[in-house]
Every structure is written in structure tokens, then in C-alpha cells.
Design goal:
heterotrimer, A mainly alpha (274), B alpha/beta (471), C mainly alpha (295), A: 274 residues, mainly alpha, 0% strand, C: 295 residues, MetI-like fold
Amino acid sequence: MIKPSSQKTFFVYLCLVIVLIVFMTPIYIIVSSSIKPSPIMFQKPPAFVFSPTWDHYVALFSERPFLKFITNSLIVALGSTAFSLTFGSLAAYALSRIRHKRMNDVAFWILSMRMFPPIAVVVPYYIIFKAAGLLDTPIALIIIYSTANIPLTVWLMKGFFDEVPRSLEEAAALDGHGLLGIFWRVTLPLAAPGLAVSAVFCFIFSWNEFIFALMLTGSQAQTATVAVMSFWSSDAVQWGRIMAGSFVILIPGVIFVLTCQRWLVRGLTLGAIK
Amino acid sequence: MKNLFLTAWICATLSFGFGGSSGAAEFDGIELKMLAIGDTSVTRLAPIVDEFEELTGAKVQIDMFPYPGLIDKIVIEASANSPSYQLMWVDSPWVGVLGESGALEDLTDLVKRDAEEINLNDILPIQLQENTWQGRLLAFPASGMIWHQNYRKDLFENADEQAAFEQKYGYPLAPAKTWEEFIDIAEFFTRTAGETLGGEILEKDFYGNAQAYSRVAGAITHDFFPIFRSFGGDYWDADTGLCGINSDAGLAAADVMKRLVPFNPPDYLGLMWDIRTGYMERGEVAQSGYWSVRTVRLTNPNEAVLPTIGEAGYAPSPTGDGGPIETMTGALSFGINSKATDAEKEAAWAFIKWGTSRDIMRRFAEEGNGVSMFHRSILSDPKLQERYPYYKVLLETQDEPGDAKRRIFHPFYADVEEIFGVELNKYMAGETETAAEALTNACTKIDTRLRVFPEELRLRWINDVPASIFE
Amino acid sequence: MAYSKKRNRNIFLIFLLPAILVLFLTTIYPMLYAGYLSFRSYDLAKPFVPRIFVGWSNYKEVLTSSEFFHTLWITLKLMVMTLSVQLVLGVGMGLLVTQRLPGMGIARTALLIPMMISPVIVGLVWLFLYFPELGYLNYFLSFLGINPIAWITSTEWALWAIAIADIWQWTPFIMMGTAAALTNLSPEPYEAAQIDGNSTWDIFTRVTLPQIKPVLISLMFLRAIDAFRIYDIIFVLTKGGPGDATEVLSMFIYRQSFTFWRMGTGAAASFVSLVVIILLIMLFFKSLNHSRRIS
């Protein structure tokens, strides 16, 4: 790539600063509210300078087994992501490579799995998981989230696989690799950015989902999102606690995204070789 | 004095504890789970459930969930055959839904059996009635509440304000007894920044009243119904069992709310529970009604600004004609899943008895979790009244039979809150022209749902049968 | 030959099978159950109401209710509002954060944070911003001389308030997808285009856009589907209000199924909404293929 001029660099940074200010303000609110004393949580004008309190964070971990809930969330999110990426990317590869007009219908059917309003299937899911003894276990959530995450992975990965040149695969085939080998060694690395994006989206969806997590779990498998929202009670919305919780549960997500970012770069270098 | 009490209390618990263990722990091996909320009625109990295990051998696990969606979770849970939860946290309007579906165990016989142990005569009867469905007591109060008004006592007692008020309205300034007075006071105290209030120049706007006009979870109906009830209105038509809110009382209540709009903060349409109580807690409003479960904050400088800049006063909610006090009650309660096993039910009842007992309640009050009590002896305790001045109001408005009216308890309560939430909100926002139109729209929608059921059933649903524990 | 078409197709089908099997097995029962419910009068909370077969009457009720069509209209309106802004802004931000300049990696991660917050919590955070008097947004706007706006409490702004919160949360989704697609591009066409002396805009429309289009289309499909099911943010911000100005389809289904305990009507509405979104997406597909053929 050609080195950008300094004028352009200035413009880029100017845009970036504006975008960052707009997008980071709500994040600032989360952080500042999480250390704001309750009596001044809301006031006119909003309090920007105040002596911070750690009460909300302390309460988060003392009033609820919050670490356990974060662990639950991690198990569910990582489990569903791994599951969805494995099955989803294999299926996407197949859909991208099979030349048959029916394949579009199959792809559409897979996507349609994501279209049904979740509220309508809460009760039937409750009934089966109850019967299977899976209520209040991470497995129940992993299964449900995968029904939303597999379609997402299939759709995203299909787009990325479509862009991988066949010539590279054919060359690998000539070297004597089987299909799975080609997929694993050639195609998948070339589509690594797509994989990273899918992983991030799957993780985030599973991490944040609320309705199923609320209805299908109890103390054993309750996720962090539900735990944070449980500071919304009948006599008060405990804003400080909720904001502190929101901030804490952001951290694993950010770590996960940072990890995936490395794949994005790797995809770039591999792409440059071709 | 306090130490003495504490020592006595510790001795009492210890001896009780030994008594329990010598009885070889009645409920050894039983594990109970409670489907609950992160409410004060629960959070103050959750840290000490181990004490219950020591006493009885039963292990109790309390799961806390968010309020939005909780009733849905409870109903789904209650429809399952082998329940995961034996104990359930119940908001009193739910007794209709849960009672009609048979989700909750009838506690009547247990209460009668253990009347002495639970000091039944010390409990405000209306708080038990509040948890009653068709004469069956389905839940036991863990926190009783009423709708009452909070006001800026320091401003109401300010000589200049008193004089100015009397000059303008021709009667002395005091906590409103009627809604007309309430509106006068609201108007009187609504000031903009720069004007004086209580001898000081205001830095920001001050409001006469802050109430909920938001439809989020029917918040507006929580403000509307106490007014409606105080005008003598009833939710249901006594002859047909259909919606009766489209009445003179309904129109009068809607009119009061509409007339109060100019004296509310500009975000009135979005005001819901704690955002509006926040105005009182920061001392930015002259008067405001709310459920008594949150009133405790007004006594605590860690949770409210008001105690540091002024003083809160407490009074019953106004009435339509200034007549006898007719406060609206509510209750946050514990119930037992009717599908639990007999042994579990017995242990669950033991837990409810323990967790709502007078001793535990007194201990909570001593520790600062006074919130909203329902034992006469606690509400009338002079030391506690000093700490929680609103206890006087709680006692006065609920002590005599007929003082208070219970909240809506119909199985279709959610429809009422939701539909009236929308229609009233539309009227307040100016989208619906008249109150009559708004109320008629809402009642028509509710009636469509109700007409499916035979009149006999509808009439049974609206009938508040006295709890048979009093027989 | 190892790369023979016939054998490969069978292997590919084996690749496809697990995903299809998993999806089929995990959704078949819930779908059948919901289908069964939609033909019954069924009140979960009230067992005294017989669960009788009522034929198409639940569907009839949904399709004749003005409330349903109102919510459908609001949903579609919201969908167009959010998706169009997200697409333009997201692609722009994607281009921005893939500039090879110092600090971009951090900026890119920071900009993904909105997406990592649970929608219910996003709703709560935006409440802080939207309160007309107590909120941050009107306070900031007052410096620009803008009078307080009743964001969530006026009919003309409430839908925008929800759209803005949703745009804030999901623009990073498009941004990240775009960024990934851009990093995956091969550099040759660019060099050729630059040597030909094309302007930046020309390079973008002629070289970049066609290459990232497939990814963008998948992203937009996913966004469209999720926007059609939007629920959490509204549940917290307005619960459909003021009046019914932000009452979307999912709120309708939720209220029927849970608040009113009319699971039959809720299920019927769900199937109707499924048909609507499938038709919409197919329409989208058709026009896409059509435009592809033309070009």
C-alpha cells in the first residue's frame, strides 16, 4: 500500500476522534456511574466531579456469587462459539463449494432458524430441557445459542469462503491433500478474518442473551447478564450496581476480541502472500 | 440500652438454637430453593439463611432474578410437574393469577395451627388479606407496604412559606388531605431557578410534585389507582365483573393527574419508580406519593440527599373528599409451591415462619433494614418510630379494619396495568383528547378479554373473600 | 484424481450434515409445539380454560387486529431507520479503522465495545442519556443551544431514540465485518487502479465495494433478521410507549404470550411474523439477483 499523505492522516485522525467521542460517551457513563454514590446518581446537571465510591463493586461480589456467574457465562459463550464455529464453518464451506441451485434453499433454511421470535419458543424449550434434566445447566444454553449462532457463522463464513480463489485449493489437491486437509490448511487460514469475526459475534451473542438465560437457568447456570439485571428489583433499580456489573462483564468480552484481533492480522499477512 | 437488647437477643437466639439442635434438626437433609428477586425483602434475609439451617437442618438457597420477567418465570415454573423451586417470592397483585392456576399452597391451616408461634394477633390483618385469594391465604408477608405521601417537612414548617400559602389559598399549609389541596400545594411550590424557596435563592428548578406518568411496567397505574381508589372507585363493575374504571372516580383521578402535570418535572411522561422517587430523595420536590418500601431511604443520608439539606415528612395519601383515610396496601411476600413434596412444604413453611418472624423483623429494623413492617408491636415501638418516622403512618392507616383497601388482585391484573398504562399515558401525552375516551378505550380492551369467561366466574374473581384464618 | 467433482460433492454433503442435523433436532420440537399452540386456546396460567382446538381463529384474530399491523409497521420503520444508518456509518468506520496508522488497533477494539454490552443493559445506559431533565444528552445539547428534547417520552422522538441506541450498539457489527473483509482483500487491483490515476472515491466504488459486497450483504441479512426481532432495548427504554409509538412486533408477541398469557395468539403472531420476514428477505434476494444480472 502507498503511504498516506500527512493531510489525509490528519483527516483520518479527526474523523476517528469524532467517532470515538460519540461512541465512547455511553461507555463513560457506565464507568462513571459505577463509581458514583447512589444519592447523586441522577441530578441536574449530571455530576461529573464527585468522590468515587467502590460500594457498587463490593456489593456486586458480596451480594451475589458474581464470579460464579461470570464463569457460567464463559462456559456458555465459549462452548457455543466453539460448537457453532466447527459446524458452521464446515457447513459454510460445503455451501460455498457445492454447485447446485438447491444449495441456496438450504442456506436460506439455515438462516431462517434465526428468524423465529425467541419469545414464542421459550416455553417449549423449558419443557424439553426439564424433561431431559438439562434445566439450569450450561448445556441447555449452549444448545439454544448455537441454533442462533450456527446460522450466523454459516452466513458470514460462506461470504468469506466465496472469496478464496479455487486455484489455491486445486493446487493443494494436486499436492495430494484430501478435502478436509485442503479446508484445514488452505481455505480456513485464508478465511481467518471471517472466522475471527464469526467467533466474536457468536461469543457476544451468547454472552449477552437475556430471555432464555432468565427463563432456563437458576442459581447453578445463571449467566452474568441475568445476574447484573437482577439488581433491577421491585422497589428500586440499583443503577450503580448494574453499571458496575456491566463494566465487569465487559472485560472478558474485550479480552476475547483482543485475542481474535490477532487472527485478523494473520489473515492479512496470508492474504498478502497470494 | 441497645446493647442490652442485643445481648438479650443473642441469648434468645442461642437458646433457641440449642433447642433446635437437641431436637435432632427437624428438617435434616432437606434442600429448599427459592425463586426470588433482588429486593430488600430478600436481600436482607439471604445473608443469614445459614442460621435457619443451624436451627432446623434445612438448607435454603435463594436465587435472585430481575423483576422484569420474574412473574413469567414463576408461572412457567409453576406449570412444571416436578418443581425446581419450593419457595416463591410473590408480589401481592400476583395472587390472582397464581391462585387461579393453583400454583401456591394454601397457608390457612398452617397459619391457624401456628398462630401463637407467629404472633398472628400482632400482624396487621389487611397485610394478610392482601395475600388472600378467594379466602385462601396464599403467601405470607415479608414486607408490607402502603401508598403514602412524602413531603418536605422543613419547607412545610417554614414560617414565610406558611404565611404566603395561607395568603394565597386561604387555609394553612399542611400535608394535603384532599387532592384539591394536593394540587394547590403542588402549584404553590413549583418554582423556577432564581426564585426563593424557604428563604434561599434556588439554583435549579423546584417542583410541586413528582409522580409516575411512564407506561414502563404500568408505572403510571401505580400512581393512578391510589387516586382512583380514594375517590371511591372500584376496578370492577359489581354486577357484571367487567371493567369499572370508566367511572366518575376514574375521570376524577385522571383529571387530578392531568392537572398535576405542570407541577411535575419536564420528563414527567418518562418518570417511573425510582427516577421519580429520586426527586424526593434529592429534595427537589415538595411532595410525592410512593410505596412505603422505599421510604426508608429518606431517613438515610447514604442513600438520599434530602436528610442532609432538609427533612422528610410522611402522611397518608390524600383522599377525594378529605374523609376517612383509605390507604392502598400492597405486600411483598413468600409463598410455597403447591407441587412441592409434603416434607418440603413443612420445611418451607418453617422457613417462612422464621424469615418473617417478629424477632427477625425487629432485628432487621435494628440493623437499619427497617423498610416497611407489618407487626403492630414493631410499628408502634417508640424507638423505632423515632428512627423510622413513617412507621406511624403505616400503623395509623392500617390498624383499624376498613382503613385500607387492597391492591388489584384480579387474575387479569397484568392486562389492567398494561392496558391502562398505555391509554393513560396517551391521554397525559395529549394523544387522546379526553379522559373519558382514554378510560373507555382501556375498558373496552379489557372487557373483550373478560367476556370470554362466564359472568359467574367473573363475579367470583372480583369478590374479595375475607381470609378464613380470621374465622 | 483427488479433486474429482462427484466424490467431492458427497464429502461436502457430509460437511453440511452436522450443522443441519443439529439445527433440525434442536428446533423441530419447539417449532412443532408453537405450531400446536397456535391452533389452541391455551392459557398457561389458567388451567380452567380448556385447551381446545380453535382452528384458525388465533390467526384470524392476529390478522384482523389493527394492533398487530401497527406493530408490524413500527417494526419495519425501525428496521429501515437503523439498517440504513448502520450500513453507511459502519462501512465508513470500517474504512477508517483499517487505515494503517498507529493507534488504529486500539481504536478498533474500543469501537467494538458497544456491541459487547447486553441489549437490556444498553437500554438502561441510554436511559441515563435520554432523561429530558436529568439526562446527559440534553445537557450536552444545551451547549449547542438546543432546547431539551423529550427523547423517550414524545411520539415524534421515541422511535428515533430507540433507533439511535440500536445504531450505537450495532454499527460496530458492520464496522467489524467491513474491516475483516477489507483486510482480506488482495492488493493487486488497488495498485492497478492507482496506477491508472483513479480518485479515491472511484477506487472505493469500483474496486473496494464490489469486493466487500458479499460480506456486506450477509451482514445486512443478519442485521435485518435481528432488527425484525428487536425487543430488549425497547423493553427497557420505552416498553412500547409513549402510547404505542414504539410498540414493535416482538413486544406484541411478548405481551400476548406472557403478560396476557394467551400463548395461542402469541404463537400465531410468531408464525405470521416469520412468514413476513421470510417474504421480505426473499424479496431482497430477488432484487439482489436481479441487479446482479443487470450488472
